[in-house]
Amino acid sequence: MTTSLDYLKQTGTVVVSDSGDFESIDVYKPQDATTNPSLILAAANKPGYARLIDAAVAYGKSKSSDPDVQVNAAIDRLVCGNSRHHPGRVSTEVDARLSFDKEATKAKAKELIALYESVGVKKERILIKIASTWEGIQAARELERDDGIHCNLTLLFGFGQAVACAEAGVTLISPFVGRILDWYKKSTGKTYEGDDDPGVVSVKKIFNYYKQHGYKTIVMGASFRNVGEIKALAGVDFLTIAPTLLEELKKSTDQVPKKLDATAAAKATDLPKVSYVDNEPEFRWTLLQEQMAFDKLHEGIKKFAEDGETLKNLLRAKLAA
Predict the structure, then answer these.
(1) CA-based, 20 to 30 A from 211: which of 118, 246, 273, 275?
(2) What average pLDDT score do residues 55-72 get?
(3) How far from chain centre, in Å, is Cα 95?
(4) Catalytic pick among 9, 102, 106, 129
């Protein structure tokens, strides 16, 4: 039986698992996996993950007698130690509190790559997730160019952010479709579906712009609220999808027609080229003018930082036990 998930893959879209629940990966057979502090925290509270927490705690204790060093090492090990559960690449997030510090972001990225390599995972399989701030984009630019470290620019909501990421030569971006929808629903009181969904509109514009101007950066739609958003983006480079929506697609046999076409987009001429990556004032002004993007970027950074701290507190308690 051909499922909607199969049809989606047949459009050329690469399906990625958006989860901290590594056991779900075997069920849906995505190529890659992404995670973030919120997803890891949700998975860490499941009884089945006690052994992974215990292993991370033991690793943290082995690294230092300093509690702060222990907890940071435990968090890194918790994420990096589970990458072997899938065949492709894994996206691992840099601490959200570093989102406005270029040098600290670069240092943390290199630290994570070294830890992955220590458990036998080559850096080619790793995407370092960095928030799409000015500092984050510049850090990713230098990591890609100087160190060959692949980056996934996350918390991306605005067109200016997307343009700067492509100019910086980052491997992949993650525009947050559902969170864009959330903002517009709250702001306008309206409901949106399919091709009219503001998140879908945003990703389509980014995809078409990248193809039209020959950028190689992968567009990976993320943060979906329903399968309608997913189907409306069939044909985009990558989609990272939560297990609940993967299950919905797997249970359905509805056709999923291709909506985005790279070849057709490359022939278009409707999106004039703009530039932000070397102009910090213009980048910041453009982001400020996109109220939704400005709000959601900073809200997302704050929430990831809060969930990261909650995860640290959970590990601190276990380290002290």
Answers:
(1) 246
(2) 89
(3) 13
(4) 129
